[in-house]
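Work Package 4 report. The design task specified in the project plan requires that, given a folded chain encoded as structure tokens, an amino acid be chosen for each position. We show below one input record used in the internal validation round.
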């Protein structure tokens, strides 16, 4: 099993390591600073920390020795003259996602940002260039807008391991976009989604996927926790099916994870509603499906069931083999060794947790 957990939190980068089934903190870096994403590149074990300084702006750091030392690299920046909308200059406000370029492109890294720009590095992160084909997509200026943030953001980048030129991105709010030529051209993939908050719920763009993931064993099966439900695609995003529970807890939320060995098994972290973003009825739950969303099971054993206000942000639920971990908005970190059947507390006193990732 993967023996490391990386956390991006409101007050720093935290790494846990397990030995003999005991998790303990290995590293704390950037203490007191917001880390929007803590990311480990599985190709080379490089750790990345995406920092969201209020006064100094976005910063990007990497470590090649498990956080003992860090090197700052130049963060993705919009070319001079680029505009979010006419008269509104574009500047990087937030780094919202990172993904490696695949085993055949050892030096490629993809980064998604607010205000809706995708960036590519072809030199291991030494420099980044804006992917202009997506930035200049004809729907962007009028069809993309902010959801939880003021401007659109690319929070999900899914690289197909069978063909690393085949990539999906998810944008809040715009929807899912697909490229099969490494970003030269893009197709909108929102058929079957709903945007209940728009005058036309079936609009071409303006959808709000909260997170997008692909099944490792069959990347043509994609899942998204959407603002308007849980959706699954069996045809590589060409169409989407709503697999939410109409009356159950598995509906609204931010996070979703898919099993390493079963494209039909997935976990979500329900919240009360878009208006009231707290645990449902004061009880924390993770819901799991084993049949592609036809049914959902509440996994509550070991989780707080009274006066709980926690929810789970979009990048803060992760899995590896039988292990599942998630962190919450009130700094609680939970771990399951049995796919959610039971939970144990790793820490109750952390800062707000933005991201969780298993690593080697």
């Amino acid at each position: 099993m993967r023996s490391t957990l990386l956390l991006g939190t409101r007050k720093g980068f935290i790494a846990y390591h397990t030995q003999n089934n005991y998790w303990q903190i290995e590293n704390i870096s950037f203490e007191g600073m917001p880390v929007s994403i803590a990311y480990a590149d599985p190709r080379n074990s490089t750790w990345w920390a995406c920092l969201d300084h209020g006064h100094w702006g976005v910063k990007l750091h990497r470590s090649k020795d498990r956080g003992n030392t860090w090197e700052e690299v130049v963060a993705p920046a919009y070319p001079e003259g680029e505009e979010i909308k006419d008269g509104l200059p574009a500047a990087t406000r937030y780094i919202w996602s990172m993904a490696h370029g695949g085993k055949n492109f050892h030096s490629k890294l993809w980064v998604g940002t607010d205000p809706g720009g995708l960036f590519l590095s072809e030199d291991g992160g030494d420099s980044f260039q804006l992917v202009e084909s997506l930035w200049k997509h004809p729907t962007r200026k009028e069809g993309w807008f902010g959801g939880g943030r003021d401007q659109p953001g690319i929070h999900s980048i899914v690289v197909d391991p069978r063909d690393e030129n085949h990539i999906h991105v998810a944008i809040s709010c715009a929807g899912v976009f697909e490229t099969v030529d490494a970003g030269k051209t893009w197709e909108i993939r929102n058929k079957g989604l709903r945007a209940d908050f728009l005058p036309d719920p079936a609009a071409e763009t303006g959808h709000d996927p909260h997170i997008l993931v692909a099944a490792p064993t069959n990347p043509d099966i994609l899942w998204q926790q959407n603002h308007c439900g849980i959706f699954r695609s069996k045809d590589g995003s060409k169409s989407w099916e709503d697999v939410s529970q109409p009356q159950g807890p598995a509906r609204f939320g931010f996070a979703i994870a898919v099993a390493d060995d079963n494209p039909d098994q997935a976990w979500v972290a329900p919240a009360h509603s878009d208006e009231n973003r707290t645990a449902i009825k004061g009880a924390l739950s993770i819901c799991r499906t084993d049949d592609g969303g036809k049914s959902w099971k509440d996994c509550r054993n070991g989780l707080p069931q009274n006066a709980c206000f926690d929810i789970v942000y979009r990048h803060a639920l992760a899995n590896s083999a039988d292990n599942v971990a998630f962190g919450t908005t009130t700094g609680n970190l939970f771990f399951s060794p049995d796919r959610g059947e039971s939970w144990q507390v790793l820490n109750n006193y952390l800062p707000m947790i933005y991201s969780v990732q298993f690593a080697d």
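Helices lie at 132-135, 140-143. Validation will be extended to a larger panel in the next phase.
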